[in-house]
Amino acid sequence: MITYQEESFSAFFEEAEPIFFKYYKDLVPEHGLKFDPNYDQYLAAQRSGHLTCLTCRLDGELIGFVVFFVMPYLYSKQATIAIEDLYYLAEPYRKGMVGVRLLKEAEKVLKSREVGIINVVCKAHQDKTVLYERLGYRYTEKHFSKLV
User: Fold this and answer.
1) Per-residue confidence at 14, pLDDT binned at 50, 70, 90?
2) Which site from 58, 82, 103, 104 is most exposed, i.e. has the minimal number of CB atoms within 10 Å?
3) Domain CATH code at residue 47
4) Distance CA 55, CA 4 (A)
């Protein structure tokens, strides 16, 4: 059975580290920086209440997660924004409803925390536009990266 739940980053990050490594290689192939995550910053964000993590598990095994940084929206004092940092779903579950359900569960949790804006991203070579538009997200901007 697949379950969806909020978990603290500290509760699942060791289990997810091999996934992070693969995820990093798949999603950031262009810059060649060494994989060396700053777990202390994730844990600090968790302690300060600025990190929200949801996982999905199949019979207890981690098959997906989404991690958001949550903070005041700098363009309006009345709003809080959640910015997706990590979104992963094991390949066999990328077709169908598992990813949709994970994101919908994340939206419920974020809404309960009075988040008014959710930003999600995808890499140009791993386009998730269809998924995001299906969930009601609008295409609003392009991001560019350069290693300097």
Assistant:
1) confident
2) 104
3) 3.40.630.30
4) 6
